[in-house]
Amino acid sequence: MTRPLEQAVATIVCTFGEYAGRCGDKHKLCQAELKELLQNEMPTWTPMEFQECDYNKFMRVLDTDKDCEVDFAEYVRSLACLCLYCHEYFKDCPSDPPCSQ
């Protein structure tokens, strides 16, 4: 039986692969692919009022090597930052976990 953390890692890898390469390099996300990934895979975390300029800013933050694409390392770093943010947010909450097991 696959454990939740193993499933999470597989989901991270597979989700990147599902969206990367639609517009070119299969190992990177262009801005359109990143936008589609965020809208489809994180709809409750991506505000509906996000404007195109917001996606431009988000892309610039994630694209640390400034090649106008997000590679897997940049993608994973962004998810790690999101996990850190969530951990900080929930660490002073009651002992019930923020997600169901």
UniProtKB/TrEMBL annotation:
| InterPro entries documented for this protein | EF-hand-dom_pair, EF_hand_dom, S-100_dom, S100/CaBP7/8-like_CS, S100_Ca-bd_sub
Q: Where is the EF-hand domain?
A: 54-85
The UniProt keywords, alphabetically, are:
Calcium, Metal-binding, Repeat
In its keyword annotation, does this UniProt entry include Calcium? yes
SMART domains named among the record's database cross-references? S_100
Extract one GO cellular component term from the record.
Golgi apparatus
Q: One MF term from GO for this chain?
A: calcium-dependent protein binding
The record, for Pfam families, names: S_100
Family (UniProt): Belongs to the S-100 family.
Which protein is depicted? S100 calcium binding protein A3
**What is the native source organism of this protein?**
Loxodonta africana
- Name of the encoding gene: S100A3
